[in-house]
Structures are given as structure tokens and as C-alpha cells.
Amino acid sequence: ICVMNRLPNNLNSLSLLAAGFSLGFLVEELYHYRHGHGPIIPSPRETLLPYLSPSEIAKLPYPPDALPGARDIPSPHGSLRVYEWGPENGRRVLMIHGISTPSIALGAASM
């Protein structure tokens, strides 16, 4: 019975603690949104690929040179990988892939 009498007070304290943490995280996110985002995570092209041997690169499931015309475009949120190929005076097509479809899956459709 002693534990049952304390339960509402413990739940109130726990609720206040959870609300305080939630408010803290919300304020922090709003601060970062208004004052710039956190650090940008560099691409594995810069942090990993330079240190792999040719045999290790050959074993990668998504080869770094799978599509021609690769270049990186920097942005405040990280870099974008862009692939451009085909005749310079040809028709231009922009293809954007989603999370579940890698860009290499669109290569054949672009030919």
C-alpha cells in the first residue's frame, strides 16, 4: 500500500522530467534551425575511398565510378553527387532518385 500511495507523485515527477527533456530538445533544435545546422558529415568519397586498396574498391557493392561524369556540388547541408553525360547539345533530362532506389538504377533509363 505504501508504494501505491507514492505512485501518483512518482508519475508526476517522471512526467515533469520527461516534459523538461522534451522542451530542452525542442529548444535546441529550434536554435540549430535558426543559427545554422550542426557539423556536416563528410562524404565517404573523402574519408574512406582514399584509404582503400584497388581490390577493396572492386569489392564495393556500389562502385564509385559506376556512372560517368561524376562531380560533387557543395551545399550548406552537405554535398550532392551529380552525374552528367551524353551529347552536350542533346536533350537534357533531370532524374532524381529516392532513398530506396540508388542512382545507379537510373543509368540504363537515361541512355
Core attributes:
single chain, 3 helices, elongated
Biggest sheet, spatial arrangement of strands? 1-2
- What percentage of the residues does DSSP assign to strands (E)? 5-15%
Rg on CA atoms, Å: 25 Å
Large-scale geometry: elongated
Span of the ends, CA to CA: 75 Å
Sheet/helix structural class: alpha+beta
Low-confidence stretches: none
Mean pLDDT: 75
List the total number of helices.
Answer: 3
* Main sheet characteristics: 2 strands, antiparallel
Briefly say what this structure is:
The protein has 111 residues and is an alpha+beta fold.
Q: What does this protein look like?
A:
- This protein has helices spanning 2-34, 44-47, 54-58; strands at 70-75, 78-83.
- It has 111 residues and is an alpha+beta fold.
- A two-stranded antiparallel ribbon has the order 1-2.
- A hairpin with a 2-residue loop joins strand 1 (70-75) and strand 2.
- The mean pLDDT is 75.
